[in-house]
Amino acid sequence: MIGTMIRAAMLRSDAYEEVEANKSATGQAMAIVVLVSLATGLGYTGLVEAAGQESTSWNLIGMVVGVLASLMGWVLLAWITFMVGTKLLPGAETQANWGELARTLGFAQTAGILKIGGLIPGIGPFLFTLGSLMVLMATFVAIRQALDYSSTLRAVAVGVISYIPYLLIMVIGLSLVNG
Fold first, then answer.
1. How far apart are CA 132 and CA 111, in angstroms?
2. CA dist 83 to 74, 90, 159, Å?
3. Range of the domain at 6
4. Beta carbons of 154 and 144 less than 8 angstroms apart
5. CB within 8 A of 80, min separation 6: which ones?
6. Structural domain tally of the chain?
7. pLDDT tens digits, residue range 41-85?
8. DSSP line for 102-124
9. Are 141 and 155 in contact, with CB atoms under 8 Å apart?
10. What is the b/e burial string over 72-87, where b = at least 16 CB atoms within 10 angstroms of the residue's CB?
11. How far is 36 from 124, CA to CA, in rounded Å?
12. pLDDT tens column, 75-84
């Protein structure tokens, strides 16, 4: 699993083809989403404290809610991306199912582990941003491979289009939770 994660973070298409085809990798993808969610929460806390703002301070309930929101977001984004990629913008070779998108999008999160670097004074913002940008690039590779596209541009279009309803649903969900 670690080797595949490293190749996924390096944007190697063979890693995404491997997890796309491996139905047993769905649990691994879920574990990556959880790990990255924890790294993001810890890294963000470090950034807030480094900026001299009042810390939201780490707490178990906040981390559990963050992990659950990340898992729901992963499931939702995979479903939306599946619908957009297979129904709205399919390529000539597109054959995919939700599981393939879920696995590849989960592994695309791997570089997000760098976000824990937000805890490191001085270079924290750089590492947090780098992790976020690497996840974005990996997401486009994951979409391209899972949907069997020959064009990265089509994968970027599907990613951007998919993100719009995803973001709206997540914002609405968060506003309902926060009252």
1. 8
2. 14, 9, 11
3. 2-177
4. yes
5. 162, 165, 166
6. 1
7. 888 776 666 656 665 555 667 777 778 888 989 999 999 999 999
8. HHHHHHHTGGGGGGGGGGSTTTH
9. yes
10. ebbbbbbebbbebbbe
11. 16
12. 999 999 999 9
Distance of alpha carbon 28 from alpha carbon 42, whole angstroms: 21
pLDDT-above-70 percentage for the chain: 90
Helices 26-50 and 60-83 pack at an angle, to 10 degrees, of 130
Residue 149 buriedness (CB in 10 A; 0-12 / 13-18 / 19+): buried
- Residue pointed to by tokens 């695309």: 108
CA 39 from chain centre, in angstroms, equals 12
For residue 117, is pLDDT > 90? no
Residues counted in the chain: 179
